């Protein structure tokens, strides 16, 4: 059996390859359906501050969630990379405040950058390569969320995922932060 870190690296590569193979029109359709499902949850309805990630091309697309937060007068936050392995939550007042940043990912323009205390966040949409039925998460390998999420003590941690990203169990280390709920196309 491989050491845990090697197991995670192999699994991460497999799941990210599957995710990259999803055709863009199918990715967009599933993104729409999952966001529609998430917007009906009590977690979303009760949240005043929602943190979501700025999607890369292979990830489920969250712009529709951003728009819903703006329409519903919720505070929307996205990650802002401070240094290697460390991020903060930054307020997104509207789509005009966004620009293409590092790694071709949307970020908030410097003149609009207002950081949010993680304690104020009610819900975090957490990215990942895979998730398991016990709240385990196989992240993307940088440890950003594992360092950030323990500071968001009041936040429900939610994953929106393709069906194939939800598995029975994953190799988990002590520092891996668990999530509260995974929404997939077929999971309630």
Any chance you could write out the topology, listing elements then pairs?
Elements: H1 4-20, H2 24-39, H3 42-46, E1 49-51, H4 63-71, E2 75-83, E3 86-91, E4 98-100, E5 106-108, E6 115-116, E7 123-125, E8 130-132, E9 137-138, H5 144-148, E10 156-161, E11 166-167, E12 181-184
Parallel strand pairs: 1-2, 1-7, 7-10, 8-11, 10-12
Antiparallel strand pairs: 2-3, 3-6, 4-5, 8-9
State the helix count: 5
Judging from the principal axes of the Cα atoms, what is the shape? globular
Radius of gyration: 16 Å
CATH class: Alpha Beta
Question: What's the name of the CATH homologous superfamily?
Answer: NagB/RpiA/CoA transferase-like
Which class of secondary structure composition applies to the elements?
alpha/beta
What is the average of the pLDDT values? 93
The largest beta-sheet arranges its strands as: 6-3-2-1-7-10-12
CATH architecture: 3-Layer(aba) Sandwich
Q: What's the β-strand tally?
A: 12
Number of domains: 1
Termini, distance in Å? 34 Å
Low-confidence parts lasting 5 or more residues at pLDDT below 50? Answer: none
Strand content: 15-25%
- Strand and helix order: HHHEHEEEEEEEEHEEE
> Helical content, roughly?
25-40%
Q: CATH fold name, please?
A: Rossmann fold
Q: Strand count, sense and closure of the main sheet?
A: 7 strands, mixed
């Amino acid at each position: 059996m491989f050491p845990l870190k090697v197991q995670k690296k192999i699994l991460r590569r497999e799941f990210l390859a599957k995710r990259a193979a999803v055709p863009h029109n199918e990715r967009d359709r599933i993104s729409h359906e999952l966001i529609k499902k998430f917007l009906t949850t009590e977690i979303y309805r009760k949240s005043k501050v929602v943190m979501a990630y700025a999607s890369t091309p292979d990830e489920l697309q969250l712009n529709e969630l951003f728009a819903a937060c703006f329409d519903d007068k919720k505070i929307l936050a996205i990650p802002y990379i401070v240094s290697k392995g460390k991020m903060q939550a930054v307020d997104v007042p509207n789509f005009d405040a966004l620009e293409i940043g590092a790694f071709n990912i949307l970020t908030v323009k410097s003149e609009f950058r207002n950081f949010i205390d993680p304690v104020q966040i009610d819900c975090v949409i957490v990215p990942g390569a895979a998730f398991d039925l016990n709240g385990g998460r196989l992240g993307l390998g940088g440890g950003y969320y594992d360092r950030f999420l323990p500071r968001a003590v009041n936040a429900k941690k939610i994953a929106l995922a393709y069906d194939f990203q939800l598995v029975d169990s994953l190799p988990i280390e002590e520092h891996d932060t668990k999530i509260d709920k995974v929404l997939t196309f077929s999971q309630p």
